[in-house]
């Protein structure tokens, strides 16, 4: 089972190998592929009624005798492959985050992580992918991203989500199989409400380093005399909020 994310907001356009083959005139395909038997061999290919991208042939074992292939060199593989489950964990008070991402500063990355990180940044409209585990009754605090839309898929657990904009506030429940979407610049939070952990796969529409601002950071970065004016509270009252950890 694969979970796929595509970097487009338009209808996805796909061309499969068999569709391209059968859309090519027989004589052109024969001249391009040069098979034994020429155009007569090309004519032995028949378009199946069912889409083979979805339904595999029922006699697959008869058709395929050897499905092995030679593994590509590591420096090539790691441009397109990343062991996210085995990567470094980034804990926060409510859970654990793991990323397959680009980082401006590659210090501390191993060689394969550097290859993957640089590969992401070289490709336009790529994705940063992550897993998010929020412990039971834990909170992924309000935050927003400056440079990416975010989409997520719930693997296990259940939770509550809030989306906060200047003119819209939306709150809703999520469970296994649900997809959530946060447009760029939209403040949002996720809370686990089950006895088990809430576990999601997240995708961000950027090949650059993700830029995030959290509520605790921007709240504490605002001068307390400004907060006093905004909330009509005495300036000293804001000392009750613990300073954000560096």
From TrEMBL:
This is GL25 protein. SMART domains: Cupin_1. It holds the Pfam family Cupin_1. Residues 107-239 form the Cupin type-1 domain. InterPro entries: Cupin_1, Dynactin-associated, RmlC-like_jellyroll, RmlC_Cupin_sf. One of its GO terms (cellular component) is plasma membrane. It comes from the Eukaryota. It comes from Grus americana.
